[in-house]
Amino acid sequence: MSNGDDGPLTVYGDLKSGNCYKIELLLQRLDRQYQWRQIDILAGAARTPEFLKKNPNGKVPILELADGCILCESNAILCYLATGTPLLPEAAFERARVMQWLFFEQHRHEPNVAEARFIIRFLNQGETEKDRLAEKHQAGYRALDVMEASLSARDFIAGAEYTVADIALYAYSHVADEGGFDLSGYPFIQRWFARIEAQPGYLSLEEARTRHGH
């Protein structure tokens, strides 16, 4: 599967970030060759003048194409790479439904599920940020409830087939427990995890970290 551009790719990312793991998952599924450039976000590597020339927003991931063109924002990168493959449907409604879940992931899911994980695992502020965590958990569980309801009626989040919407939501959902979320009451989400992990080319987060020496 290919989006038609087979030139060498460079990904600037940090696997502490689920947004970067998304890109890894998709590139493995597409069997695309790429170079990984580690950007340690906790050490401020995304705020250096050199990095900010590539992305003034100071965020990972970044995809750099062979001609030097730069693409930022994880879900935009997913859509670019998946264009022309079954992971991003061509039919207008099916594609719009995938986009619906990508917007949901960035506006309702990631700001809560991912943020709670970052506070607890990477900032070590679980005890000092209890009020903030409570807000993140309340909103995060609402997002998980929406996903559970959808997955009770279909195998994948946007329909019957695996798409980039599944990749986007899987990245942080499958490690939600690291942010203090209890997924034991979400059987459909857990079965969905298993279906994603059975996909061709699947690479676990730990395998990805080992691959890139982190």
Please tell me about this protein's structure:
The protein is an alpha+beta fold. The model has no long low-confidence stretch (mean pLDDT about 95). A hairpin with a 5-residue loop joins β3 and β4 (about 70). The protein has helices spanning about 20-30, 50-55, 75-80, 90-120, 130-150, 165-175, 185-195, 205-210; strands at about 10-15, 35-40, 60-65, 70. It contains 8 helices and 4 strands. Helices cover about 50% and strands about 5% of the residues. α1 (about 20-30) packs across α6 and α5 (about 130-150) crosses α7. Strands 2-1-3-4 form a 4-stranded mixed sheet, with helices on one face.
Give keywords.
single chain, alpha+beta, globular, 214 residues, 51% helix
Q: What's a quick, concise take on this entry?
A:
The protein is α+β, with helices and mostly antiparallel strands and 214 residues long. The protein has helices spanning 18-30, 49-54, 74-82, 92-122, 130-151, 164-173, 187-197, 205-211, and strands spanning 9-13, 34-38, 62-64, 70-72.
Please give the order of strands in the largest beta sheet. 2-1-3-4
What is the 3D shape? Answer: globular
Number of strands: 4
What series of H and E elements makes up the topology?
A: EHEHEEHHHHHH
Summed up, the helix count is: 8
- Report the sheet with the most strands, covering strand number, pairing sense and barrel closure: 4 strands, mixed
Strand proportion, as a percent range, falls in 5-15%
Average pLDDT taken over every residue? 95
Extract low-pLDDT stretches: none
Helix content: 40-55%
Q: Structural class, judged by helices and strands?
A: alpha+beta
Radius of gyration: 17 Å
N- to C-terminal distance: 28 Å
